[in-house]
Amino acid sequence: MTTLPRHFVPDASPVLPSAGRIGLRVFMAVVTALFSLLLLAYAMRMREADWMPVPHPMLLWWNTGVLALASAAMEVSRRARMHHATRRTIWLLAGGALAALFVFGQWMAWQQLSASGQGVVVNPSNSFLYVFTGLHGAHVIGGLIVLAVTIARLRSDPERAHRAATLCATYWHFLLALWLVLLAAMWWITPAFVTAICGPLYGATP
After folding, report:
1. Predicted confidence (pLDDT) per residue in 81-123, tens digit
2. Is residue 204's pLDDT more than 70?
3. How far apart, in whole angstroms, are the C-alpha atoms of residue 144 and residue 129?
4. pTM, rounded to two decimals
């Protein structure tokens, strides 16, 4: 009797990506497109004559470190073995606490800007800073809600919880990468840089 190799066994079905993974990828693609359009509007708007430099509260850098730690905690949770629910729960809780601290730090940065007279309507550059940080923070809060549901299901279905932890880690890595792009744009993209790439504004004197 001849035994067929594993990949020729008729009953072996191909491994397909889960619906959750596909949904997350589609969602991240939509969010990427949204922020790409906002960054394009940001770059185009800064060529106007009334543009002022974007405020740079140093607290944003500390918040960046906190978000990086949250992403690292999610990664440790993802790498935990499927039946190590306690270890996974601890790291998920640590990542969630750090993410919540990040949101609180962003709110504190808003308070500092407001106290120093840098409100949302002072200049278009301020408006973009508030939009970037606020919209990104909203996505972090949404991730925290999903994370809470994931933690609640850890013991009921270990295999499903493991997949959910993997999706949470992927989403948190995405949020960190997105925030680094936004931070770089607010710190290092200047009107001179945009003019060098796109040319002078139509009707303006070169």
Report:
1. 666 677 888 889 999 999 999 999 999 999 999 998 888 888 8
2. no
3. 22
4. 0.83
Burial of 96 (0-12, 13-18, 19+ CB in 10 A): buried
162-165-169 Cα angle (round to 5) = 140
Res 157: pLDDT: 66
Cβ contact 120:126 at 8 Å: yes
The Cα-based distances of 61 to 29, 85, 105 in angstroms read 26, 33, 10
Q: Where are the alpha helices (DSSP H) in the chain?
A: 19-45, 59-79, 85-115, 124-152, 158-188, 191-198
174: closest CA among 62, 70, 40? 70
Is residue 60 within 8 Å of 183, Cβ to Cβ?
A: yes
Among 127, 134, 142, 114, which Cα is nearest to 57's?
Answer: 114
pLDDT band at residue 8 under the 50/70/90 scheme: very low
**CA 68/CA 89 separation, integer angstroms:** 19
Q: Which of 50, 37, 39 is nearest to 201 (CA)?
A: 50
Whether the CB-CB separation of 121 and 58 falls below 8 Å is answered with no
